[in-house]
Amino acid sequence: NDVTTRLDGKVAVVTGAGSGLGRQHALLLAKQGAKVVVNDLGGSVNGVGGDSAAADKVVAEIKAAGGDAVPNYESVATQESAEKIIKSAVDAFGKIDILVNNAGILRDKSFGKSDLKDFSEVFQVHYWGTVYCTKAAWNLMNEQKYGRVIFTTSIAGTSGNFGQSNYGSAKAGMLGLMNCLAIEGRKNNVLVNAISPGALTRMTGNLGIDESFMKKLDPAFVSPAVAWLASERCDVTATIITAAAGGFGRLHYFETKGVQFDPSKPITVDMFDQQFDKINDLSTADPSTAGTEGKTQERLDTLSA
Ligand code: NAI
Fold first, then answer.
1. Distance from chain centroid for Cα 180
2. How many whole angstroms from 289 Cα to the centroid of ligand 1?
3. Are residues 257 and 232 in the same domain?
4. Domain tally for the chain?
5. Ligand 1: centre distance to CA 19 (Å)
6. Of 1, 45, 204, 304, which has the maximum CB count within 10 A?
7. Segment Disordered: which positions (predicted)?
8. Residue 293, pLDDT score
């Protein structure tokens, strides 16, 4: 079986790879055989400042381990600089096969107290950064008939978290992008998936937990999922993989069986009210009929039958 999890001959860009999760992703992709662009503008957790040392250090680590890597210090947060990130892969290694959109910042504050300027800056890095980098790589990947794009979402987006309305909405927004791009890229072997990680990094702080548990939340435990999603072995698209402390799962949303009223007659608020418990009953949701083949489609099918 020559379809492998190895990445020999592949070229990867990891954004925000100067620390935390991105650093571990870059190290593992390189270990698996990929040539890696280590992108990081080297700012603070809040997205202030910049320093080339962060990316340089990780490049040195990869080289010391016998791998191949180049640094890039551009920000993901403008279209022009994101294009330069992807161009640096093409310039250094001739192509781009793998894009891990990982760069991120935090501006946590409850919605009532938050400044919408923070909202737009968080969106600029997480959401637009993902759009810009993916857009710059997209046509190249589709033309060469190989591409693996990995987004980094968060439980703050998929389930919500106090004080993270800006971050959570950017993280959920990218899932809509993932779902649509997965459909557009599939025919060209360009697969678009997401990880929803959990790890102790400078972004999370140490969360006040004891040292032995801290070790279990090593960001290195997330990276095997990323390396697999980057490989030829990956045959899924539009899939969200949760990864934390050595635990992995798949996260998805499903529609309930719901109700079907007769649409040739008026449909009233009372009718909806009387059936709401049934509409809302998640125990009737069926994982085998997700997405565009979901329950809405099933109900439409019963009408047209
Ligand atoms: P981190 O702060 O250690 O790493 C983020 C990196 O992104 C930093 O090195 C930073 O310099 C870089 N960066 C920030 N803005 C950038 C820009 N405009 N252009 C290029 N690079 C930029 O944090 P961590 O935890 O490793 O976060 C990585 C990703 O994982 C982020 O997208 C974060 O939102 C996500 N995440 C992390 C979780 C965790 O438990 N640590 C949970 C859920 C999501």
1. 14
2. 34
3. no
4. 2
5. 8
6. 45
7. 283-305
8. 60
Candidate of 28, 201, 209 to mutate for ligand 1, largest count of ligand atoms within 8 Å of Cβ: 201
pLDDT of the residue at 207: 73
At 304 the three-state DSSP class reads helix
Looking only at the bridges linking them, the beta strands covering 35-39 and 147-152 are unpaired
At 276, list the tokens: 């709401």
Give yes or no: residues 164 and 257 share one domain.
Answer: no
One domain, residues 72 and 207: yes
Q: Are residues 45 and 193 in the same domain?
A: yes
SS3 for 170? helix
76 touches ligand 1 (CB under 6 Å): yes
Question: Is the CB of residue 147 below 6 angstroms from any atom belonging to ligand 1?
Answer: no
Q: Is the CB of 59 under 6 A from ligand 1?
A: no
Q: Which residue's CA is the nearest one to ligand 1's atom 8?
A: 16
Per-residue pLDDT of 222-234, as tens digits, reads 999 999 999 999 9
127 labelled catalytic: no
Domain that includes residue 94, residue range: 11-251
Nearest CA to ligand 1 atom 6: 16
User: What is the CB neighbour count within 10 angstroms for residue 290?
Assistant: 15
Same domain, 199 and 290: no
Taking all residues of the chain, what is their mean pLDDT, rounded to a whole number?
94
Q: Is the ipTM of this complex over 0.95?
A: yes
Angstrom distance (rounded) from CA 179 to CA 65: 36
Helices and strands (H, E) in the chain, number of each type: 11, 8
pLDDT tens for each residue of 41-86: 998 888 888 889 999 999 999 999 999 999 999 999 999 999 999 9
Listed as ranges, residues in the chain with pLDDT below 70 are 1, 288-294
Residue that the structure tokens 């070790």 belong to: 215
